[in-house]
């Protein structure tokens, strides 16, 4: 990993940490958000650490596993990192589904936090 740009190292580490927490204990995800953070989950908007954790903790499944297919990271002009993740997830006994998720990461007080998070299932049945 030493030959990758720093934003790729930070982005990749964040993605690994995020999905490990999500798959094991979603209530712990509050540590990566701040009160100004925004989440868009399947078109629904949530702002603030408490609202985001409440949403993620109340998702209607007990068991989930994410598999990352690809991830891309870019530095932004204001020293943040934009990360895009494509993968598959399996929740409870549901079929495997594709998903897309994007994050903006910002260094605040020597810690990288997620200021923006957007998630969509990759469903193609537009009705």
TrEMBL record:
InterPro entries: NTF2 (IPR045875), NTF2-like_dom_sf (IPR032710), NTF2_dom (IPR002075), Nuclear_transport_factor_2_euk (IPR018222)
Subcellular localization: Cytoplasm; Nucleus
Protein name, as recorded: Nuclear transport factor 2
Domain spans labelled NTF2: 10-121
Domain of life: Eukaryota
Function description: Has a role in nuclear-cytoplasmic transport of proteins and mRNAs.
Principal location class: cytoplasm
Any one GO cellular component localisation term in the record: nucleus
Pfam families in UniProt: NTF2
Keywords: Cytoplasm, Nucleus, Protein transport, Transport
GO biological process entries: mRNA transport; protein import into nucleus
Protein source organism: Denticeps clupeoides
UniProt keyword annotation of Chaperone present: no
Keyword Transcription: no
